[in-house]
C-alpha cells in the first residue's frame, strides 16, 4: 500500500474497558491501527492473527485527546493526577471506532492509548485526524463496495407518530450523541402531520446546506422523504413525473434511515438490522448504497414511488384493515394479517409484464443481494452504457410482454427482499437492491391451508415459491387491471362513506361479481394505500442512494481493505 508509514510507540499501556492490556508495540499504519495485544486474541476480523485486532481507518468514528484527569479525592477538583514514576503513561487519546457484533449490528467501541511523550500523543491524534479528513477527499473503492464522502451536515426528520411513537427518544438518546461525537451538524425537524417532511423537502428545504437527509421512522416515513427528494429532483431537472416514459433524474443526496417504525423493512434489507445505532454508524462512515425505485401511474397520472413492496390482495387488505388500528402500533399488522387470512378473499384481473433479460438472475436462484453485489454492479455499468446509447431496450421495442389473467389471492412486486423482523429472508429473498428489476409474485386462488403454508414459509427457511399456485417473475415493468373496473357508483359509495354490508350489497346488485365479495382490493405501496387499482409500474435503476452498504456477508472477514485499490 502506498503512503505506508509507521509510528512505533513502545511500552504503551492500553486501558480498555474492564481489563488492562500492555502493548508490546502499537503500529499506526495509514490504513489500519493494529493493536498488538498480549492478553486477548479477540479480533474484530477473525482472520487477523491471534493477539491483534484491526480497525480500518475508514471505520474510525473520531479520535479525542483525553485529559487523563481524575478527581482528586480530597478536593474534588479536576487536576492532573501525578502518575507514579513506575507508570510513565500520563498522556492519552481515545479512538472511537465501529465494532461489529451479532446479526449485522454495529456499535461504537473505543480504545484509549496512554503515552509518556505528549508530543507523540499529539502526533497520533493529528495523524488520525488527517487520515479521517483524507477519507473525504478521495474516491475509495474496495473489493466490496464504493465509499463516498462522510457527511458533515444532515437534515433530520423525526416522525413522532410511527411505530411505538418513540422516534424522538430513539434519536435523542441513541443517535444524537454519536453524531455529535463524529462532529456532524444537524438540523432536526419533528414532523407535525403526515406528509410534512415530503412537502418541506419538495418546496422549502435549502438542500445545498446538507450532505444528506435522515429519516427517523419506518417505511412510510422513508417513503415520504424519498418522494420529497425525488419529486424535487425531477422538478429542478424539468422532468414530468406524469409521463411514464420519461427517464428520471437520479437524486444527489443520500438518505439515512434510523429505524423507528413497525416493519422497517427498507432499513432491514439495506443494513441487515433495525438497530438505530447500527444505522447511525453507517451514516457516519459515509456508506453509499444505490437503490431501484418503481414509479406507479394510473393512465397518465403519476401516483407514487415504491422501493419495497407493491402488494394487491392479501397485503393490500392487511394494510387497509390495519390503518384503522394504528393505535395498536406494530401489533396491528398481526391482528389484520390473521383477519385477512381468515377472510380468504381473491381478486380477478389481468397482469401483464416485461420480463428482465440478460444476466440479472432469477427470483429462485438463491443468490442473495449482499454488500458489493455483482448483479447490482453489473446493472450499474449497463445503466451507464444504455444512458450513453440513450436507446430503449430491444424488449421494450419489441414489446415482448407476457399476459396472465386469473383469480389471485395476492399480487406482490418486491423491488428488494423486503426482509424484516417478521420475515428475516423477506417476500423475495433473492431480489436485488439495485439491479433495475422487481420480482413479481403471483399467488393464485388456492385453499386456506395451502395459502397458510405459503405464508408461513416467509418465516422459515423453506422456499415460499415452491407451490403449484405460486409463480414469480423478474420484470422491468408490469401492469394490472382488475376484471371489474372501479365504477363511479363504487367510488361514490366509498366517498359518501358507505361501507360494510350495504356497500357490498350495492356492489353485488350492480356487478354480480360473486357472493358478497368486494370486487377489488387496494394496492399497498410501501405501506401506503394507492387511490387506484388499475396501475402501470416501471422500475428506475439506482435512482436514489442510502447511507448503507447492503447486508454484509456474515462470514469472518479477511481484512476487508486488503483489496483497497488506493
Ligand atoms: N407528525 C405526524 N403525525 C401523523 N402522521 C405522521 C406524522 N409524521 C409522519 N406521519 C405519517 O405516519 C405514517 C407512518 O409512519 P411510519 O412509516 O414511520 O410508521 P409505521 O407505519 O408504524 O412503520 P412501517 O411503515 O415501517 O410499518 C407515514 O405514512 C407518515 O406519512
Ligand atoms: C397468518 C400468518 C401470517 C404470517 C405472515 C408472515 C409474512 C410476513 C411478511 C411481511 C412482509 C412485509 C413486507 C413489507 C411491507 C412494507 O412496505 C409495509 C410498510 O412497512 N409493511 C406492511 C406490513 O405492509
Ligand atoms: Ca430491484
UniProtKB/TrEMBL annotation:
Residue span(s) of domain DAGKc: 149-300
GO cellular component: membrane
GO biological process, one term: ceramide metabolic process
A GO molecular-function descriptor: ceramide kinase activity
SUPFAM superfamilies, alphabetized: NAD kinase/diacylglycerol kinase-like
Pfam families: CERK_C (PF19280), DAGK_cat (PF00781), PH_CERK (PF25382)
Name by which UniProt lists this protein: Ceramide kinase
